[in-house]
Amino acid sequence: MRRFLSIISIIIALTAHVSAADVVCTPGTLGQAVGNDTDATYLKVSGAINAADFDFITKKMTALATLDLSEATIEVYHGDPVITGRTDFKANTLPEYALAGTNISQIMLPNGIMEIGEGAFLGTPIKAINFPSSVEIIGNSAFVNCDSLTSVNINCEIIRDYAFMDCDNLNSVVIGNAADAISKAAFKNCKSLASLTLPAVLSVIGNETFAGCSSLATVKFPDTLTRIGDRAFYNSGIESIDLSNTYVRYIGQWAFANCANLRSATLNDNIATISQAAFFDCHNLATYNTPASCSTIEQFAHKGNTSLQTDKLLHNNITAIGDYALMGMSHIAEIFIPESVDSIGNNAFENWASLTGIYAPNHFAVPRLGQEVWKNVDQSKATLYVNAETCNAFAVTDQWKDFNISITVGTDNTIANDNAVKAHFAGTDLIITADLNIALASVYDSWGRQYILVQPHSDNITIDTSAWGNNIYIIKVILDNATTASFKLSRR
């Protein structure tokens, strides 16, 4: 009999633990309506409530797991300090920190609610949430540390800073077309996020928005995107980037730094700024193109990119290579430095252990160097190829002079494409012809020593080389329109 009574007592206790309350109230009267049912795990509220009623839920209904507000409205509050110590709260807004720290795992929001307030669900075990179409704003830190939340479908205009930060099990995020920007760190450190749908009208991805999202491998960037903020994908799992059909013009500092899985980045030619360290320590990045509109490789931009080739890294619009910009690319044996480059920063080529050749044949001025540009490079095993006119200048300039310096010739793409200048030997006669008059022609030996300089002002010239003993000659031609061509020719 005693055993039977004990079982009945347990059943009664369990029933009490999962008790439900269904109340109708006016603003500020929820406590009275609930009465002795403060241990309820389910509460449905009809009528109108305000911030004072949420204060009652937070402080008195500590066992509450399910809150149904689908038939309620949230009214303005002005009175004694509640929740965060404030005395004023807006209507149609889930108040700031209204349910933070509670045990609520399920909620049905009012149909007319317009805003989820700052920190409203912070640290709760909420498992899922359906946002009514009336919601326009999700506030700062609204769902921070909601580790039971696995998916969200959002179609509001504004997602504020840190809104879903540190939601460890958030796997799927769909953001509808109401939003054209995602604010700072909105999904930072959501380490399980694997499925992401961005708005088709998205313009801005804010600072740190997806930083630390280590499971995020694939992102489809909408065409409308114009800006990717600082550290936006820092230390994320992204594997490829395709911005070729977007309007992106700015990539922020450290935007894709420490992305160990990143293997390719295809950028559009309208990007004006790729900020410092944007691709820092992306060890597996092998495919990359510097946009034509970029004139600077910023400091630390490609530090540690040990899989990257340089054929599309430096182009003829690049004027400066920043401090540590290319540091640690130990796999590169040869590099061509465009004639547009006039300055190279501190430690820019540090630890290029495999470097054997540097080509600067089109430079007619020696680029300025910062400190320790070639640190840990064995310059005695590398050759610097320059033209005859600047050979001596390179040979007496600190850091450059430590290479083995050799004369070579550059190429002018315009000349190469239309064959405006041609040169050949007929016996010992050097014959040069051009489509325009030749303003100046110079002939050098392979060490850069000048044999002759002529100013024929005609479209052809013959130079007798019989008195010269060398068989390799460097010829530089300047036409009347200032077009330049250089050749290296062998006399047989």
Provide a compact summary of the structure.
With 492 residues, the protein is mostly beta strands.
- Counting DSSP H or I runs of 4 or more residues, the number of helices is 5
Assign a percent range to the helix content.
under 10%
Residue-averaged pLDDT, rounded? Answer: 90
Poorly predicted runs are 1-18, 411-418
Number of strands: 35
Beta-strand proportion? 25-35%
In CATH, what is the homologous superfamily of the domain at 17-140? Ribonuclease Inhibitor
Describe the 3D structure.
By secondary structure, the chain is mostly beta strands. Among the domains are: 17-140, Leucine-rich repeat, LRR (right-handed beta-alpha superhelix), CATH 3.80.10; 415-490, Immunoglobulin-like, CATH 2.60.40.10. Helices cover 9% and strands 30% of the residues. Strand 28, helix 4 (391-395) and strand 29 form a beta-alpha-beta unit. Residues 1-18 and 411-418 have low confidence and may be disordered. Strands 30, 31, 32, 33, 34 and 35 form a 6-stranded antiparallel beta sheet that branches. It has a 5-stranded parallel beta sheet with strand order 13-15-16-18-20, with no helix packed on it. It has a 4-stranded parallel beta sheet with strand order 1-2-3-7. It has helices at 2-17, 30-34, 51-60, 391-395, 413-418; strands spanning 20-25, 42-49, 66-74, 77-82, 86-89, 93-94, 106-108, 115-116, 137-138, 151-154, 158-159, 172-175, 181-182, 195-197, 204-205, 227-228, 240-242, 250-251, 264-266, 273-274, 287-288, 296-297, 320-321, 334-336, 343-344, 357-360, 368-369, 383-386, 404-407, 421-426, 429-445, 450-454, 458-464, 472-479, 484-490. The radius of gyration is 35 Å and the shape is rod-shaped.
